[in-house]
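To illustrate the input format used throughout this study, we show a single complete record. The first block contains the structure-token representation of the backbone; no residue identities are included at this stage. The design step must infer an amino acid for every position from geometry alone.
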């Protein structure tokens, strides 16, 4: 919230610099984003009064303006604003002045005509476009008649730009600080100063003989929807611009002035933290207001002009059966205040914060009102806010307030009573506070209390404006922050110390990252939330999709069940920016729900995706596109580094719709499924807008649980090795794995390496046959191998291959 130092000074006797005050707020209450002045670096900007306005002889839109700036002679300025006219009080940047962004204004000629300055719009001197009154958004600003400005006056002072604005970031538990009154109370407690509030109450002249209850009735279908709902009717109003002081106050708070009636509701919201809504009474279809849920198939056009399809649970304000407002969020177009409004039905309510938050999030309508309703409203201030708003409307709009208040519902919660002892306070905070010191803190906070002086027990009553105070711990926090966190004694922790270390699981996860990065892959981190459709892509095990009840966007509706979809999104992002060679991996959790379990199961996975080439082309290396076997090699090396106590096997599969059926394999360790590797299906690639991509995904939780071979050093043999090559003619359905299984099962004492160096399938071979070429390496670590020993083992292996697979030696 934007806090005006000038406005705070009306409640408190502030003898502290704004930056120092901001530091105290940040140390004690809530975070402060910034302390700013709108006149920062502005120079020589004054009020000018336009005397004569003539068209430029060489332009159809420029004007030559004679301006009185409080000097002996008027100055001449060429101005292109469409709303420039004679007899206006305007903003003039003199020669040598500085405007927004430190732009310097100099004398110049505009199409041959001298110009001695610049007539400015509000945006040009630092105001945000969103707060500029609509009449002046596309032109220069004209001071209203009640501004009281004179030629030569400082514009910064006239517009209140010399005021310091403290921008606070309110935490969800401190909704009371979403108002000037709440902030003044808090700052008064921090500075130990008395706070003086001023409230406006209606006088006899502000009221008519009419009765609000005869003009309108209110019904709340369920007290939970609106614990408090009240209305007043103000008659015979005139809609016009707000007084200058009110417009300035709203603009500094970041709100655009609209008219005297709407501005009053925004002003009261800032002052009391109580959102109000003003309905054009004559535009209400019926004079019966109902607070109820929308029901099925309801459409409603909000004040921003958007037609919205409402959910059945959205809370509505209805006139008869016609929706006129989204309760606590935004009003409707049909009943908004317009220039012709004569009678206003003014609403002050407290709505169910959960319903308001759900509606605001679903329809992406995070209004100032919704923000306050979500965090809570002060039940004790609603009558003052409603009375003051009605009085201001009557006074600024020359109208009259109908007597009495229409009450649809009023359930005021009881003030919470909390017991706490002085011994407990000092024990928890480590202090030696006396009962008088603690009592003084409660007095500063405005908390009523009774003290049992015998045993030092406090019975504290938390006021309704502090709905965040409910338990002993809350009081301890209040005492600590007002006493000052810096004043609390510092102590070192005591007790036995332990040496920190990583668990086995953490070590494997870190080693996994190191291995994949060593193989040329870069780590990626994707969102755990994705679309419902993508959540079910590349899933390794059946399970229900876990949907988010209130997603922030349509792209984040469900928890992911695979890591690959996020990696493909990353590849698409990079390829869209002309990056061709991409190699990524991600280690993270996937989620699935089984049966009636409320919480989803979280499983650690690791996945990779490569497109293009792993090695960039250079004068010595040519670009080589990744293929299935290169990706399989990455997985092989990774699994080998894990030192698993089991045989790794790859089996072709077509079970994944998103994967190429002829280039995908499931991965097993001793018949236990751990993941898959392969090429993404061309149709899936097209959907993700990516080029040919190869991926893998492994269940890291299963790999962590797998037994490992204890690593030990094996001395490298100093004796020479002997190689034997063989070419095998086999049936086409015989795989490399089949050959390896036979070789590994044979009694080969000195066989240390098997390398498949050739695969041939051509016209020179019989139909249904293929040729596989292997190189077998033999070595003895203790002695030089004899030729006869190698020949004997080799011949034994060949015979076993012939027997079990029916191979033919070529």
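Output of the design step:
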């Amino acid at each position: 919230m934007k806090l005006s130092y000038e406005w705070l000074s009306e409640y408190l006797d502030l003898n502290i610099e704004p930056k120092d005050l901001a530091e105290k707020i940040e140390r004690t209450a809530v975070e402060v984003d910034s302390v700013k002045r709108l006149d920062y670096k502005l120079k020589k900007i004054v009020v000018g009064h336009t005397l004569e306005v003539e068209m430029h002889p060489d332009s159809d839109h420029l004007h030559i303006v004679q301006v009185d700036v409080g000097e002996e002679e008027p100055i001449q300025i060429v101005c292109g604003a469409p709303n420039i006219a004679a007899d206006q009080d305007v903003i003039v940047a003199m020669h040598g002045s500085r405007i927004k962004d430190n732009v310097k204004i100099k004398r110049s000629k505009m199409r041959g005509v001298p110009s001695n300055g610049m007539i400015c719009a509000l945006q040009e001197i630092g105001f945000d476009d969103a707060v500029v009154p609509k009449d002046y958004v596309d032109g220069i600003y004209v001071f209203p008649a009640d501004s009281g400005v004179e030629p030569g006056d400082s514009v910064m002072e006239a517009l209140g730009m010399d005021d310091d604005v403290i921008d606070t970031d309110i935490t969800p538990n401190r909704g009371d600080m979403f108002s000037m009154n709440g902030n003044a109370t808090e700052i008064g407690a921090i500075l130990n100063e008395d706070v003086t509030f001023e409230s406006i109450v209606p006088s006899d002249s502000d009221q008519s003989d009419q009765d609000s209850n005869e003009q309108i009735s209110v019904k709340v279908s369920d007290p939970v929807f609106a614990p408090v709902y009240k209305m007043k009717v103000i008659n015979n109003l005139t809609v016009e611009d707000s007084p200058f002081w009110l417009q300035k106050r709203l603009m500094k708070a970041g709100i655009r002035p609209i008219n005297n009636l709407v501005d009053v509701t925004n002003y009261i919201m800032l002052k009391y933290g109580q959102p109000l809504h003003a309905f054009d009474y004559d535009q209400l279809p019926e004079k019966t207001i109902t607070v109820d849920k929308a029901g099925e198939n309801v459409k409603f056009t909000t004040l921003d002009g958007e037609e919205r399809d409402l959910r059945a649970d959205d809370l509505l304000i209805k006139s008869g059966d016609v929706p006129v407002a989204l309760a606590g969020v935004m009003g409707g177009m049909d009943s908004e205040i317009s220039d012709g409004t004569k009678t206003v039905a003014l609403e002050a309510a407290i709505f169910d914060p959960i319903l308001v938050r759900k509606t605001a999030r679903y329809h992406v309508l995070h209004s100032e009102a919704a923000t306050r309703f979500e965090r809570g409203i002060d039940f004790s201030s609603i009558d003052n806010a409603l009375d003051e708003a009605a009085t201001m409307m009557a006074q600024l709009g020359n109208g009259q307030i109908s007597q009495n208040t229409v009450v649809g519902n009023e359930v005021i919660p009881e003030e919470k009573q909390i017991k706490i002892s002085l011994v407990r306070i000092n024990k928890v905070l480590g202090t030696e506070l006396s009962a008088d010191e603690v009592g003084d803190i409660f007095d500063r906070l405005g908390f009523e209390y009774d003290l049992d002086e015998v045993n030092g027990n406090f019975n504290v009553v938390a006021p309704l404006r502090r709905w965040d105070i409910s338990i002993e711990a809350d009081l301890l926090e209040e005492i600590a922050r007002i006493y000052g966190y810096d004043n609390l004694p510092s102590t070192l922790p005591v007790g036995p110390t332990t040496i920190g270390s990583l668990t086995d699981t953490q070590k494997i996860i870190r080693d996994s990252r190191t291995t994949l990065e060593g193989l040329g892959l870069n780590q990626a981190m994707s969102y755990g939330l994705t679309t419902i459709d993508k959540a079910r892509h590349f899933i390794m095990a059946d399970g229900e999709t876990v949907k988010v009840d209130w997603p922030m966007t349509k792209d984040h509706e469900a928890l992911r069940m695979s890591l690959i979809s996020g990696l493909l999104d990353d590849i698409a992002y990079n390829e869209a920016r002309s990056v061709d060679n991409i190699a990524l991996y991600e280690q993270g959790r996937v989620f699935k729900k089984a049966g009636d379990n409320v919480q989803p199961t979280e499983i650690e996975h690791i996945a990779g995706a490569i497109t293009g080439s792993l090695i960039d082309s250079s004068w010595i290396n040519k670009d080589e596109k990744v293929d299935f076997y290169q990706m399989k090699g990455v997985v092989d090396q990774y699994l080998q580094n894990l030192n698993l106590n089991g045989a790794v096997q790859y089996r072709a599969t077509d079970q994944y719709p998103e994967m190429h059926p002829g280039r995908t394999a499931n991965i097993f360790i001793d018949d236990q499924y751990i993941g898959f590797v392969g090429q993404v299906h061309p149709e899936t690639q097209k959907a993700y807008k990516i080029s040919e991509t190869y991926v893998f995904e492994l269940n890291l939780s299963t790999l962590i649980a797998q037994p490992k071979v204890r690593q030990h050093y094996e001395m490298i043999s100093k004796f020479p090795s002997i190689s034997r090559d063989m070419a095998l003619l086999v049936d086409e359905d015989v795989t490399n794995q089949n050959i390896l299984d036979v070789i590994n099962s044979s009694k080969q004492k000195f066989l240390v390496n098997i390398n498949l160096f050739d695969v041939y399938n051509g016209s020179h071979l019989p139909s249904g046959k293929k040729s596989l070429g292997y190189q077998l390496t033999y070595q003895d670590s203790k002695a030089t191998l004899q030729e006869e020993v190698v020949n004997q083992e080799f011949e034994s292996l060949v015979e076993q291959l012939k027997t079990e697979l029916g191979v033919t030696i070529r």
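Structural context for interpreting the output: The CA atoms of residues 28 and 484 lie 7 Å apart. The first strand starts at residue 2 and ends at 4.
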